[in-house]
Design brief:
mainly alpha, 2 domains, 76% helix
Amino acid sequence: MRADARRNRDRLVSVASEVVAEQGAEASLEEIARRAGVGSATLHRHFPTRLVLLDAVFAERVQALCDLGAELVEAADPGDALVRWLRELVRHAVRNRGLATSLLKGTGEECHTMILATAAALVANAAVRADVTAGDLLKLANGVALAAAGDEELADRLLTLAVTGLGR
């Protein structure tokens, strides 16, 4: 890829990341192109669909989340490791508006596969009910992030409630 094309692509991903954080995964592609200082055709040349652009926006962040999960698989307390990773996943979803929803819609097959594999490894190590799956926990995390509507403190409180139950 030519240097100028690479710069345009990188600028588009950076601007798209900002716009998606502000407006969610349904943000206007035209707005992204305008803020990046390129034409719509340039955006579509690099990212033929919204889903391809979202993959690029979220891929690096998902990799960092999965790297943390890989470290936590080795933790001394697998239950605490799972909960810590779920907290990071929820925080990640709250900060990256639209990620969880877009993953559930089929966006980012690779990102979804990575997150699901990380969750599965952590669930396999933790002492959780036999009927709990990694997919269940990803849906729970998504629900918490959506319910919190951008409020990280509320998201953390809701996740705590979910993982500790109503113990009186």
